[in-house]
Amino acid sequence: MYRAATIKQIAEALSVSISTVSRALSDSHEVSAETKRVVREYARKINYHSNPIAVSLKKGRSNSIGVLLSDVASSFFSQVINGIESIAYEKGYHVIITQSHDSYEREVTNIGHLASRSVDGILMSMSSQTTNYDHVIGLHNRGLPVVFFDRIINEMETFKVTTDNFKSAFEATELLIKKGYRNIGHLTNAAQLSITIERLNGYKAALETHHIPYREQLVKCCNHGGRDHEEIEGVINELLADELKTDALLITSDRISTAAMRILNHLGKADSLTIIGFSNSDVIDLLSPKISFIRQNAFEMGQIAAGMLIKLIESKYPVYEFETKLLDGELHWRGQSKIK
Amino acid sequence: MYRAATIKQIAEALSVSISTVSRALSDSHEVSAETKRVVREYARKINYHSNPIAVSLKKGRSNSIGVLLSDVASSFFSQVINGIESIAYEKGYHVIITQSHDSYEREVTNIGHLASRSVDGILMSMSSQTTNYDHVIGLHNRGLPVVFFDRIINEMETFKVTTDNFKSAFEATELLIKKGYRNIGHLTNAAQLSITIERLNGYKAALETHHIPYREQLVKCCNHGGRDHEEIEGVINELLADELKTDALLITSDRISTAAMRILNHLGKADSLTIIGFSNSDVIDLLSPKISFIRQNAFEMGQIAAGMLIKLIESKYPVYEFETKLLDGELHWRGQSKIK
DNA sequence: TAAAACTACGCAATCGTTCTCGAAATTTTT
DNA sequence: AAAAATTTCGAGAACGATTGCGTAGTTTTA
């Protein structure tokens, strides 16, 4: 097996102590300029790189951060990862990504894995199946920095970043109303998720503002987040019932939107519903039927979350002032006004 | 700062030696059943978890693997990552993902980062800008296991997994021919990439088999891989020149396909070209214009690559027998026959 | 010129494990 | 009953770095 160079080898070769080599390489003032020169020259010559694992052990830090999200194979999350990575890279941190696939069990085991001291902090977006937060709260109480992004929770005080979901849902719903739609359905994620609640509230508020009565039958939570085709199929069929007169849809995720579109296409009713969906797909403009969308600032969300976490990790003193940052979504209209 | 429990604490609490605790926890035969019981019970009680960093330092292994690919925000690569993760998780490895964004410089610095002894092996798909392989070959020669997936290179002997690109391109081209198309353009990636070469060869072979002359003007390498809209626009315009009579397109990536479709839509010529694209998009069926596609077994590719790498890492003896595994692509036809 | 301060370096402990040796205590063999 | 083998455990040296402390040798201060 290949063994890399160590400071011990340098020390022996140059007949100085290990401490001196260590100090020379870290540019300590306790070593002369000449010695530094010699040590560095030799280190470079034998291609020395400090062993991050040894440093981690000694310093009690690993210079890596763990990310826990539901699925990397999603345009939104992969853009977030991109943002996280850009900041982490800049600050010298490794990023370890784990996926919950929206399963509570996987979330618990993954966070345990990450936490067993191999990461300095965790970036987390809740699984849609999670209703008990002890696994996170416990770690956080024991001193592990945690920052939430996207799907946040109120049960913990820390830094959080998410889209201004209320506002985005409000604006989208209001836009539909202004375009003449009155019977707007709402297809959304698991009911306990923060994003679900906030968006539902935005939807309700827009209806109220425009004096449209809220009807519970028009709101459908998809607990499998669009993974289960039949769930969506059932829901769409319910919404298409004549008595509801559904004429538009506000959908909260790419996966649900595309599932719904697929079903509408199949039913030959693609044009019977106008859709606005939360979407970060890069081919949204090519989809048929046409769909309007709210784009989240996923990349920026990743950057901000990573920045917050690293700030927490590197803070010398305990932090008690936290912030929940809300990012604006961008609403893009590609639909038609309802003919009056 | 929070400090986790150590075997030393257990040893002191139970008045046994550190060695005994270590052995008890690793189920060594050198410790009595009773002692094991006591130690484990106490370990569980104080929520002990072994410190992976200390173990890494001692064993000279980190139990993590590095992944180097161009972009996670791609359906193909994110599916590969999923596959990698599933195997790595199972075998107790962490996955560290880095992105080259198809830049040679980033590839070099990233692989350097990964290699400075923090990973046990590397899973790699070449950046499209890379033409010099010294950075990988050097590390490999020094003993770091490397496995290539998707975009492989011939300059290194090791395990490799990729789609049978020749076959897939051959089948796709042949299918177009059988449907009556004779002037098939080929939009592809950077010329030196393995996937580019193999697919181009498949394309050529299909033409030859069916006695259609190969025309160089119909083949366009997109060096920016679809990232540069104008590059694709120029290329599409060239292919649409009357004298070429282009009637179909074989495209090698999602990004290029969607860029091309966007341009065709904009030109109002969406129906003038029949497209088959290599695509792992999960909304391919919703895209307009309709596009036929070759789906790669991305998840399986990730699994196989990770399996190969871990096998290499854990092998007690140097490995000299390597394999290049080719996966079948699945061809899906959604187009129309050409009216004769 | 003696005392104080500073420079430049080495020694050794430490981080949390694993693992080689050696050695009691017990059991088996002869 | 003595010798040999086995079981069970502890001491201590690694792994590769960082860092507090001690101390020659030199320079500055009083």
Explain the overall architecture.
The structure is a homodimer of 340-residue chains. Chain A has 340 residues and is of the alpha/beta class. Chain A contains 12 helices and 12 strands. Chain A has helices spanning 7-14, 18-25, 33-45, 52-59, 75-91, 104-115, 134-141, 165-178, 194-209, 229-239, 254-267, 298-314, and strands at 64-69, 94-99, 121-124, 146-149, 160-163, 184-188, 219-221, 248-251, 274-278, 292-295, 324-327, 330-332. In chain A, helix 1 (7-14) crosses helix 2 (18-25), helix 2 (18-25) crosses helix 3 and helix 5 packs parallel to helix 12 (298-314). The radius of gyration of chain A is 26 Å and the shape is elongated. Chains A and B meet through helix 4, helix 5, strand 2 and helix 11 of A and helix 4, helix 5, strand 2 and helix 11 of B. The structure holds a DNA duplex (30 and 30 nucleotides).
Low-confidence stretches of chain A: none
Task: Name the biggest interface.
Answer: A-B, 51 and 50 residues
Helical fraction of chain A: 40-55%
Largest beta sheet of chain A, briefly?
6 strands, parallel
Mean pLDDT of chain A: 94
Order of helices and strands of chain A: HHHHEHEHEHEEHEHEHEHEEHEE
Q: How many strands in all of chain A?
A: 12
Strand order of the largest sheet of chain A: 2-1-3-4-5-11
| Quaternary structure annotation | homodimer
State the secondary-structure class of chain A: alpha/beta
Return Rg of chain A in Å.
26 Å
Strand content of chain A: 15-25%
Number of helices of chain A: 12
Morphology of chain A: elongated
Measured distance between first and last alpha carbons of chain A: 76 Å
